[in-house]
Amino acid sequence: MDNRINEIRRQIRALRVSMLEAEAIMRQQINRDEDCAFVAGDLLKMRLVMSRLVEERGTLGDREPIIVHASVAPRRRAAPPIFLRAVKRELVAGEARG
């Protein structure tokens, strides 16, 4: 049973790296305004395989996290939201306007 768990963990690791690479390729295709339907279909198939592997892994009782060190660069963090304060305006009398 431990061999099967290790095999599943190895497959999940490889699948995660493949999914990250496919996502990067798909982003490049979208940025070039190309059709990415083929890569998107492959990504959906990978997700289906991943969900079945995770389900089987859970059935076998493995609950430890799987860490993946991919060569794909992580996306940069989202910029923090900018909060603009309303500027206080002074009221001016009608005659003083110019």
Describe this structure in words.
With 98 residues, this protein is mostly helical. The protein has a domain at 2-59. 54% of the residues lie in helices and 0% in strands. Helix 1 runs antiparallel to helix 2. The protein starts with a helix and ends in a 39-residue tail after the last helix. The mean pLDDT is 83.
Summarize the structure.
The chain has 98 residues and is mainly alpha-helical. Helices cover 54% and strands 0% of the residues.
The biggest sheet, with number of strands, parallel, antiparallel or mixed sense and barrel status, is:
none
* Fraction in helix: 40-55%
Helix/strand/pairing category:
mainly alpha
Residue runs with pLDDT of under 50 for 5 or more positions? none
Mean pLDDT, all residues: 83
Q: Kindly, what is the distance between the CA atoms of the first and last residues, rounded to a whole number of angstroms?
A: 86 Å
DSSP helix count? 2
Order of helices and strands: HH
Rounded radius of gyration (Å): 25 Å
Envelope shape: elongated
Give me the count of strands: 0
Percent of residues in β-strands: under 5%
Q: Can you lay out the helices and strands and say which pair or pack?
A:
Elements: H1 2-31, H2 37-59
Helix pairs in contact: 1-2
Considering the chains and any ligands shown, give keywords for the structure.
2 helices; mainly alpha; 98 residues
